[in-house]
Amino acid sequence: MSQGSGDLLLLLAALLWAPGPSPTLSIHVYTQREVYGTVGSHVTLSCSFWSTEWISDDISITWHFQAEGSRDSISIFHYAKGQPYIDDVGTFKERMEWVGNPYRKDGSIVIHNLDYTDNGTFTCDVKNPPDIVGKSSQVTLYVFEKVPTRYGVVLGSIIGGALLLVAVVVAIVYILRSCWLRRQATLQRRLSAMEKGKLQRSAKDASKRSRQAPVLYAMLDHSRSTKAASEKKAKGAPGESRKDKK
Fold first, then answer.
1. pLDDT at 149
2. What is the reported pLDDT for 200?
3. SS (H, E, C) the chain
4. In a 10 Å sphere around its CB, with 0-12 CB exposed, 13-18 middle and 19+ buried, how is residue 207 labelled?
5. Among 91, 206, 230, 243, which is most buried by a count of CB atoms within 10 Å?
6. In degrees rounded to 5, what are phi and psi of residue 151?
7. What is the rounded distance in angstroms from the CA atom of residue 218 to the CA atom of residue 92?
8. How far does the chain reach from its first CA to its final CA, in angstroms?
């Protein structure tokens, strides 16, 4: 093998084994999916983020707005070098307020005096060098005359009402059963007391009869003896009268 071929192989091996560039770190941005507001009120568009690096002085936060039915997106807010900037483009200049704090990983804004023209999609994008690669997050704003009741709230109310009704029915059944058991126990005690009273009266009557029987027998014997004596005396009376005549 020639010297040139050997050098080429060494060069290819060095390229294959050489370490590649370090991967770029990623930043994660989070917002709500939907926000509801009413005409004339205000709404907070929350934006939080997570970064593997300490918050640097070069951190930047940008908000974009795409109106409902439009294909164009405009920048409405920018934070950089520690200062918030509200863009002159659009109708949010006099109605927007910065309430975030990058050092708390918060990039939220507030929009005041809502109008129907504010319906659309808002995008929050955060860069924290060297964390510069990441996907932005979007939140859709719906402005109504009155905030509609969401389906989940209605369903939750129905389920809550059904559970409350079941709990009331169970409580009523429990109370009725307790009352019935107490009534049965009271009746049982009354019946037991009545039976006990009858037994006591029966015992007293039997005792009275047992005490009265000897007296009756004595009275009968006495009456019989008196009757026999009177009969005997009556039979002996004529003989005595004849003796007297003689």
1. 60
2. 72
3. CCHHHHHHHHHHHHHHHCCCCCCCCECEEEECCEEEEECCCCEEECEEEECCCCCCCCCEEEEEEEECCCCCCEEEEEEECCEEEECCCCCCCCCEEECCEHHHCECCEEECCCCHHHCEEEEEEEEECCECECCCEEEEEEEECCCCCCHHHHHHHHHHHHHHHHHHHHHHHHHHHHHHHHHHHHHHHHHHHHHHHHHHHHHHHHHHHHHHHHHHHHHHHHHHHHHHHHHHHHHHHHHHHHHHHC
4. exposed
5. 91
6. -60, -40
7. 126
8. 200
> Which tens digits make up the pLDDT trace of 173-225?
989 888 988 888 888 888 888 877 777 777 666 666 666 556 555 666 667 77
- More reliable by pLDDT, 19 or 231: 231
Kindly give, in sequence order, each residue whose CB lies less than 8 Å from that of residue 221, ignoring residues fewer than 6 positions away.
none
Q: Note whether 43 and 114 are within 8 A (CB).
A: yes
In contact, 11 and 29? CB cutoff 8 Å: no
Query: Which pair of structure tokens corresponds to residue 121?
Result: 């999609």
Does this model's pTM top 0.70?
no
